[in-house]
Design goal:
The chain is 14% helix and 33% strand. The protein is an alpha+beta fold and 84 residues long. The protein has one domain. The strands form two sheets. A three-stranded antiparallel beta sheet has the order 1-5-6. The protein has a three-stranded antiparallel beta sheet with strand order 2-3-4, with no helix packed on it. β3 and β4 form a beta hairpin. The N and C termini lie far apart (34 Å). The relative contact order is 0.22.
């Protein structure tokens, strides 16, 4: 099997924290297709594959095609770094 390296790319992302749900307007980024449920403290994201959930600590990432998807913190930190 051949090895492949991920191409460098820049994505937009926001991390879900406890403060996200304590804010009077939890969707401060105004992400279309994301509903924040303060009772369960999860974000519900409409994706091409249906509805998915992101929990505290997870990131909501906008792909290069504009789609939103959740990403766990450990995978996000292993895959992306903040620009210098």
């Amino acid at each position: 099997m051949k090895a492949y390296k991920r191409r460098p790319l820049t994505v937009s992302a926001v991390q879900i924290t406890d403060a996200t749900f304590d804010d009077p307007c939890p969707n401060a980024e105004h992400l279309r297709g994301v509903v924040y449920n303060p009772t369960e403290r999860v974000a519900i994201i409409q994706t091409r594959n249906g509805e998915t959930r992101a929990e505290i600590g997870d990131w909501i990432v906008r792909s290069v095609k504009g789609d939103l998807y959740p990403c766990s913190d450990d995978v996000f930190r292993a895959s992306y770094e903040a620009p210098q």
